[in-house]
Amino acid sequence: MRQFDLAPLYRSTVGFDRLFSALDQFVSADTVPTYPPYNIERTGENAYRITVAVAGFTEADLAIEVKENALSLKGERKPDPDRKVEILHQGIAARGFERRFQLADYVQVTGAVLENGLLHIDLVREIPEAKKPRQIQIASTGQTKAKPVIEGTVQQAA
Q1: 39 and 28 belong to one structural domain
Q2: Do 8 and 83 have their domain in common?
């Protein structure tokens, strides 16, 4: 795989650090983790769900952390000292894992539930009113100018 050096871009741009960091991580990712498998679903216009297959893990074995725009999921099974079983074939993975998801701006984690060996993490994108698009009225040339407002009273235009 070819290696790209993005260092010159860091020196000549301002405010695009996260973009180039994401590109750098994408390009330098030689091995993509495949365990545990997961799905990302869209459940509404601004609602999403990440479903992770965590068979054999309990709520106590899992940890979910959100820091800035990164969602981190960790799983570590603790061995049961009372259980003494000779395993003849182990097809169910019991290894620990760490999976990271990069969240878009204004995406919040609203909850998580573990059922039937699947961990469901619900997300919602809540865009602040100031960032939402708004319509601007276009005045025609024949309309009068808006009357200025001073201290809560409307002044008559002269």
Answers
A1: no
A2: no
Enclosing domain of residue 40: 34-128
Encode pLDDT of 38-75 as tens digits.
999 999 888 999 999 998 888 999 999 999 888 999 99
Q: Which two tokens stand for residue 35?
A: 């365990």
DSSP state, 61? Answer: G
Which residues contact residue 113 at a Cβ distance below 8 angstroms, ignoring those fewer than 6 apart? 119, 120
Record the pTM. 0.63
Query: Tokens 């319509």 appear where?
Result: 135
Is-cis flag, bond preceding 36, omega within 30? yes
Residue 48 contacts residue 124 (beta carbons within 8 Å) = yes
Residue 106 has which token pair?
């204004």
Q: Residue 68: which H helix or E strand, with range? A: none
List C-alpha distances in Å: 138 to 135, 141, 142, 145: 9, 10, 12, 12
